[in-house]
Amino acid sequence: MLGFADGQVKDMMRIVAAVLALGNVAFVAGDGEKHKVKDAKGLGTVASLLMVEPTALEGALTTRKVASGRGSTYTVPLNAQQCIDTRDALAKATYTNLFDWLIAGLNSRMAAQSAKEIDEEDELFVGLLDVFGFENFDFNTFEQLCINYTNEKLQQQFIDALVKLQQQDYEREGIKCAHISFPDNAAQLGMLEAKLGVLGMLDEECALPKGNEEAYVEKMHKQFEASEIYKKPSRGGGGGKRGSVADIGAKKDLDKLQFVITHYAGEVMYTAESWLDKNRGFLQPDLAMLMGTSSSKLVEALFPISAESESKKKSTVSSTFRASLKALSATLLQTSARYIRCIKPNLRVSLGHLPPASNHLPPYSTGTSAASSRTPRSRRASSRASSSRASCGTPASPPSSRSSGAATRSRCSRPTSSRGTAAAPSRRPPRSPRTSTPPPSSTI
């Protein structure tokens, strides 16, 4: 399959099965402060798929080793929530490493094949970006912040590509058209990605020996006190409860961990519960070392053990995500993008119900896909945007409050051009992997 040996394909299936089986591993209280795995059979299934010892796996999931200042180590038992977080971290790291390994292998084979078939200057590039919709739940945490940050970034990309540039085309070519109004989310992006922004301050708090979420949120309250798109919620909001959050809410005052950001699509209240652990995002060293001793060659390759990796400073999840999103934006700017708006028929998600007609985008738009491509050098000279020849009106409206920021909708007649209907000219981006790691979601 795609140049992978049968043994490698079987190993990949075993690892995916192990990730799924990890979700069934639960924990119960043991002796004293210790916890243990509730179902030994389920743990055995995971250990068998990953080809590690069940006893060693249980120990790595329920305890951690802490180094003292004198060079010695001691074992500390984990509480119930920490056991769950460690289990989830293993599942995420395993899946992420497998994804990266698979994409690296595919790109290596495709690059070798492309070099034989076509000239580099005339290489065709087609990419499909499936974007999460804007998210606003009763309980919004780190995953929702990352998803909504992605939507803010792509909203800006959408505006630049389909509104600002088109308006400049009108002015340059002398076409009379009313000024196009569009929302500007530069303030939101500045607050999220600046050095002293929401994500930057989270990284700083993670670097502090005694950093905690309550101090992080309090610092943001002071930093953005004068901001119009940030506010401190009134006490007693409760933060909502979802899943295991009910247990957390019974023990902690979630009000102290809450803050509100006004995104381009609306206000969202975030609760910074366990954000530091999520942002650190790396496995406990003893658990990573256990995976590195697996009898499976592929699992061992996914968790290499080296002195360099131990001493190397680990990047946070948010910094890695920002770098990945920046690279994605740079690639999109060098391609011709076409935006497809994806909608649900109605908020009820039911048959036979149609919402009232509206001239605006429906409020139940859930997400978009953006297809980008580049054309061969021989055709670039004649490849121009027919959409810039629209006769009048607004060429495209920004996405709705729950769209990802990549959709288009025109209230004009269909654009026409005597020079064809190809998209805007493509500039050849630097050679890069044809598939990139997806943005963080609920499984970040």
Labels describing this entry:
disordered C terminus, three-stranded antiparallel beta sheet, Four Helix Bundle (Hemerythrin (Met), subunit A), 444 residues, alpha+beta, 12% strand, 10 strands
What does this structure look like?
This protein is an alpha+beta fold. It has a domain at 6-109 and 282-315: Myosin VI head, motor domain, U50 subdomain (Four Helix Bundle (Hemerythrin (Met), subunit A)). 42% of the residues lie in helices and 12% in strands. It is built from 15 helices and 10 strands. The strands form 4 sheets. A 3-stranded antiparallel beta sheet has the order 5-10-9, with helices on one face. Strands 6-7-8 form a 3-stranded antiparallel beta sheet. A hairpin with a 5-residue loop joins strand 1 (27-29) and strand 2 (35-37). Helix 1 packs antiparallel against helix 4, helix 5 packs across helix 6 and helix 5 packs parallel to helix 14 (317-333). The chain is globular, with a radius of gyration of 25 Å. The chain starts with 5 loop residues before the first helix and ends in a 64-residue tail after the last helix.
